Structures are given as structure tokens and as C-alpha cells.
Amino acid sequence: MEDLLNQFVLFARENPNLAYFFLFISAIVENLFPPVPGDTVTLIGAYFVGRGHLSFAGVLISTTLGSVVGFMALFALAYKLEKTFFETGKIKWIQKSQLDRVESLFQRYGYGLIAANRFLSGVRSVISISAGIAKLNFLLVTLLATLSAILWNGVIIYAGAFIGESWEEIQHYINIYNKIIISLLVLAGVIALITYWLKRNKKSSTGVKGE
């Protein structure tokens, strides 16, 4: 990895605009193909900010624009294709259980889930798809997705450039954060399902007594 960083140092020094473009593309790809470590690439950008090879504003703008473009691309796709397409399993990283869980979160938090999407690692792409399926307001979704990306990317870049001793150290803490968030989301989904099941059984028992 150290060799790759050294090569990118030379690349960033000689071609800063292309380096920003690389970060922009990687942020798009991270949204379209979640297994790609987009936050890691953002951290690498932060690493170079801290060493004066790239500017804070340049890395923030390029990664934010990429995040929003990727998010809205999936939103537009889901808006057109609707939920049945994503339930067929044609897109391997999208599972029906994920869609159902995020849909229940939307029912509780509404547009607030869009504003928080960048802080919810593991379900960002599912949130954009669910928002498209629900046919939420395009302009409002774009605005909230942009705000979310600015805040999240800004924190990562600042941490990687000015706080952490290395991008690997900050990535370690981000991984811990991601595991905590995913665990909380799973717990919230389980609680929502239990609540739904209890309410349904209560209605059923009430109906039987009424008869």
C-alpha cells in the first residue's frame, strides 16, 4: 500500500486536476457498487491534503459531487424501475430484506433518512434506491443528499488531514463506527418487526373478540 501511496503522491503533484477527477469518479463508483471502498479513497485524498499535495476544498468538492451523482443515479434508476425490479435479485448487493428494513426506517424518519444517509454506512445505496421507489421529491432529495455528503466527507477529510497520524488510523475508527451503525440499524429493524407483529396480533385478537 505504501508503494501505491508514493505513486499517487507523484501523480497528485504533477496532475492535481486529474487527482481530483479520480476522487470524483471513485465516489460515484462507491455509490453504484457499494463493495468498492469509497471512504478509503476519500481518506487517501485527505492524506494528500495534510501533506499539501491537494487542497481541502478540492478534495471536498470532488468527493461530494461524486457522492451526490452516484446517489441520484440510483435514485433515478429506482424511480423508473420501481421496487419489483430490485426484488428479483438481479442486483446481487441489493436484498429484499434490506429494502424492507430501509422502507420501515423511511416510514419513521422520512426525509431525515436522506439527510443522514452518508453517516449510515452499509445502507447508503439502499436508501437512495428506496427513496426512488417511494418517488420522493427530486430537488429535496438532491439538496439533502448534498448536505449529508458535505458533512460526512468534510469530517473524514479533516480527520485524515489534520487529526490522525495516518489515513489507516482514521480508517480503523471509521470501520468501528460503521460496525456500530450497522448493528444499530439491524436492531432498529428487529424492533420494528417485533412492534409490527405485536400490533398485528393485537388487531387480530381484537377482531376475534368482536365477533
The total number of structural domains is 1
Number of strands: 0
> Which structural class best describes the helix and strand composition?
mainly alpha
Q: Tell me the overall shape.
A: elongated
Instruction: Write the H/E string, N to C.
Output: HHHHHHHHHH
Describe what this molecule looks like in 3D.
- With 211 residues, this protein is mostly helical.
- The protein has one domain (2-210).
- It has helices at 2-14, 16-32, 38-50, 56-81, 83-86, 96-109, 112-115, 124-133, 138-163, 167-210.
- The longest helix is centred in the last third of the chain and has 44 residues, at 167-210.
Helix and strand topology:
Blueprint lengths: L1 H13 L1 H17 L5 H13 L5 H26 L1 H4 L9 H14 L2 H4 L8 H10 L4 H26 L3 H44 L1
In short:
By secondary structure, the protein is mainly alpha-helical. The protein has one domain (2-210).
Name its key features.
mainly alpha; 211 residues
